[in-house]
Specification:
453 residues, alpha/beta, Leucine-rich repeat, LRR (right-handed beta-alpha superhelix), Rossmann fold, 2 domains, 30% helix, signal, Toll_tir_struct_dom_sf, transmembrane, signaling receptor activity, transmembrane helix
Length: 453
């Protein structure tokens, strides 16, 4: 689980960061995403405690926002953040399982500056639903889902564009004036209605004005225990709850055709799962092959000329958890005290450039490769990917072009075959456990980097 948003390729438009630990959200949270044209952001299940008003202000293409399952957030926090979204085309917001005890009327008002088409607030704890206010603020609303709650009181409202209304598993007592009065239908465009598990006790003329309705769910309502069918003749006298046909029974599709379709889809699904599993298993090999193909296409040749003018003396491969050691030890001794330039990805990679392109470019600009070995490093897929590229780059170089520094005791059994090959072909140094031995360690490393024997 991440506590920050890393750099992403410039072509990314959908960001799903659910299930992480972004507890504080503000504009700086997304500083690594400058230049991205994000249209969908999902931040569900992050344990978010606070959202600053300017958190999403620089996303000028944002169409959909999902903040579900962050119960610590208040509706006013969300309202303040939404109010400063700078994309007038913003259309959808999902706020499920927020456990709000009061209806988020302030959020309705904040959303009124946009043409919101979808609002989803499932599994919350407020009892009152003011559809009068909601319909006036969200005029263009097409889909409203507020199921799995405890709503018992509703003030009716007129929704001229609403096509989907989902209020299932609440405590609503639907009355005949809920959908309209003698002169006006409150939902003229409604085509899908879900009132499952509420408290409907009478359906006489209840849906009289819903001319476009083609999907109605009433199951788990007490009304179904009271009404009997009259037509068709074969259903005459049968309880309504038992006579509601399934979607398949309503279809004219032949059962054999249906079976064939299901079988075909099942086989296609199995093949897809097998292919996906193979791709996932070989994902790093595939990235490596793609890299070699791109290198070959660009006419890249391996470098063995010591007279080449390099920007960095060494490119450092390390795990994120070793960054403190890199900053306090390696950079302090090698760069600050010895004046030898090193390439550190957290500092020297170009923002907005594809990650693999940064690796290739910075390795080409470095005379040597330094690998910092630790327990976390041997488990990092990105480090192993960088290692493969480094091995390809250094095939024709002297052994001193490869330097491995072991900062933690890692046995060979815990190393991959490519990592063992790198260590065996590189100049190897183990970081001393005693502080008084560190001076000789840094002196030896400096000599190697300066090509002194």
């Amino acid at each position: 689980m991440l506590r920050f948003v890393p750099e992403l390729p410039i072509y990314i438009t959908n960001l799903d960061f659910s299930g992480n630990r972004l507890q504080i959200i503000n504009a700086s949270t997304f500083r690594n995403l400058e230049g991205l044209k994000l249209v969908c952001i999902s931040l569900g299940r992050n344990g978010i405690k606070h959202i600053a008003a300017d958190a999403f202000s620089h996303f000028r293409f944002l169409l959909r926002l999902d903040l579900s399952r962050n119960p610590t957030l208040t509706s006013s926090m969300v309202a303040n953040a939404v109010a400063q979204i700078n994309c007038l085309d913003f259309k959808q917001i999902l706020l499920n399982r927020m456990k709000w005890s009061n209806e988020p009327t302030d959020l309705y008002i904040a959303l009124s500056r946009f043409n919101i088409t979808k609002l989803e607030i499932l599994d919350n704890n407020f009892q009152n639903l003011n559809m009068t206010l909601l319909s006036k603020q969200l005029v263009q609303l097409e889909e409203l889902r507020i199921g799995y709650g405890i709503i018992s009181i509703i003030q009716p409202g007129f929704f001229k564009n609403l096509g989907i209304l989902d209020l299932h598993y609440n405590r609503i007592q639907i009355t005949k004036d809920f959908f309209g009065n003698e002169t006006t239908c409150f939902f003229p465009e409604l085509v899908e209605l879900n009132l499952k598990a509420n408290s409907i006790t009478n359906i006489d003329n209840l849906f009289w004005c819903l001319e476009n309705l083609n999907s109605l769910r009433l199951t788990a309502n007490p009304i179904l225990e009271l009404y009997h069918c009259k037509t068709p003749p074969e259903k005459d006298g049968e309880l309504l709850k038992d006579a509601i046909p399934t979607q398949f029974e309503c279809s004219d599709t032949d059962k054999e055709l249906f079976t064939a379709i299901v079988t075909s889809l099942s086989l296609s699904g199995i093949v897809f799962v097998i292919i996906f599993s193979l791709i996932f298993r070989l994902r790093w090999h595939i990235r490596y092959w793609l890299y070699l193909y791109r290198v070959k296409k660009k006419g890249f040749s391996l470098i063995s000329n010591e007279e080449t003018d390099y920007k960095f003396e060494a490119y450092v491969i390390y795990c994120d958890n070793d960054l403190q050691w890199i900053r306090k030890k390696l950079l302090e001794k090698i760069e600050n005290e010895s004046g030898i330039s090193l390439c550190i990805r957290d500092r020297d990679f170009e923002v907005g450039k594809v990650y693999v392109e940064n690796i290739i470019e910075k390795m080409n600009a470095s005379r040597r490769i330094i690998l910092v070995i630790s327990h976390d490093m041997v488990k990092s897929n990105w480090c192993l990917f960088e290692l493969r590229i480094a091995q390809e780059k250094c095939l024709n170089m002297e052994s001193e072009a490869l330097i491995s520094l072991m900062v933690e005791d890692v046995s060979e059994e815990n190393m991959s075959s490519s990592l063992r090959a790198f260590v065996n072909s590189a100049s190897f140094s183990k970081f001393p456990t005693k502080e008084y031995d560190e001076g000789q360690f840094w002196l030896n490393l400096t000599k190697v980097l300066r090509n002194q024997r």
